[in-house]
Amino acid sequence: MNRNSLAILVIDENRIRASIIEAGLRETGHTNVTVVDDITGVARTIAEINPDVIVISLENPNRDVLENMFQLSRAVKRPIAMFVDRSDRASIEAAVEAGVSAYIVDGLRQERVKPILEMAISRFNAFSRLSRELEEARSELENRKLVERAKGILMKSRGLSEEQAYALLRKTAMNQNRKIADIAQSLVTAAGLLGPGEDA
Amino acid sequence: MSERHQITAGFMPLLDSALLVAAREKGFAEAEGIDLLLVRETSWANIRDRLAVGHFQVAHMLAPMPLACNLGLTPLASRTIAPLALGLGGNAVTVANALWAEMKAHGARPDLDPARAGRALKAVVAERARSELAPLCFAVVHPHSGHNYELRYWLAACGIDPDRDIEIVILPPPLMADALAAGNIDGYCVGEPWNTAAVTQGSGHIATVKAAIWRGSPEKVLGAQAQWAESNPEALRALLRALYRAGIWCADAANHEELAALLASPAYIGRPAEWMMPALSGDIRVSGATVTPVDEFFVPLAKAATFPWKSHALWLYTQMVRWGQVRHDRTNERIARETYRPDIYRAALEPLGVALPGANAKVEGALRLATPVGSAGASLILGPDGFFDGGLFDPDRIDDYIDAQSSPRRDH
Predict the structure, then answer these.
(1) β-pairing, A100-105 with B290-293?
(2) Does B363 contact chain A (CB < 8 Å)?
(3) Can you tell me the ipTM of this complex?
(4) Which of B11, B43, B107, B189 has its CA at 20 to 30 Å from residue A109's CA atom?
């Protein structure tokens, strides 16, 4: 039996991440990969493809549903255990840290499954890093827009220059030990409440 | 406070996370020198796993979960103890409007009476069987949950075989009301506010409540990772005191609106505050505008509601045996008994001079009336704690109780 014959089921509501995992598995020579993004009907999928390994994200609210299926003999043909080896604490920790969990058919040799789990962990981590960077970039952009609007409000209501407006925001932030964006947010909100004038 | 403790607790978005939320938000944890971080989770499996790898030291847990962990019934588990209960009761059984209409035709009324609702349901089940319709499908949150066991207890006591006459599936609490509305399930047993959710959305009718099936029954506990608890006894005791004081605050009706607002916030349950009020007030909106008052629907403090009774652990264990989840033997019984830790509870709360039960176990279902009991410190009232079918569970006669229960099918 070559390792390509392992049947792998990936359950992830996040389709982008699921395809990243799938690509990773295919790159490492696993061709028998099934990806589902919805738990509905997964019992039938499991019965059909009889997976050796099931990978599911920890943020999926249906993990309890899935684990219950493993306990029902009619849903799965073979007993399924979690992770490669309960004694392999480091792997388990790494997986939980990364936000992924894997269920393995009992009796499968550790060296056959471990690379799959390691790949899933690294892809999950890469995906979170990307999401975080994207989120940071997005909030950075939001913050910049907020500061621009706050400056506009100050320039208009207090007759300040752009530089003076920015200096005032910066000084207030320092005095209050807050971020400039937070001060800008408060100012924009307050201006909106105190109404008309500034188009918030 | 000499030493500060960092404690991270996992919780699920359910009303009975109230003690943990109040302990953090109302400063009871802070007053005990605890930086209590609460992390909302999406599944009980995550709570179990993150407790096992040490992300959480403690967690909001289904009362049978620590038993399941210690009995080796779960894919990954660390030794877990239950040193405190997070209140009593709090669940209900909700059915789809269509099923309620059928039950009503067979005598069900909006009085939440489990015997009457059960008779009606049995008639519906029989009728469907005669018409060769698919069996009704009910959802619970987890196989090792009070919900699963009380639903099954109620059904079995009403002559419905939960394994043969209906289907029971697992669903996460926040998805229940939608699944009911979509017609994927016919009913479910879940904690609040997820029954009120279906009633508010107009898709379901509350048929009965946990407090009527078994009044004053165990629901959630504080699960603590045993190794952490052993190495950090001071931190654990401080947390138990904080949670007890949070219980006092949660029990005061004057605080219910504030508690409802806290629980409603996006960091916790993230649903409207009005959804929290029925469970807190006991005025249960069973459908549309029909409100049925329930005594002790959810009990956060009174009646020793935070005491981890060994008889509760053992009853839950008898249900695991009954439904074929675990084999009954002396070792397993001992594991179940030793999972709940009233000794730690007593040691933590003794300095507060609060009412503590004199015993670690009691005969469940024996008290027909509220009864003052011998207790250390102050006066304590227990009960009523009856099972709706008059059942009694004597933890000293566990073999008899298990023998007398209807057994799971063994034909597969």
Answers:
(1) unpaired
(2) no
(3) 0.88
(4) B43
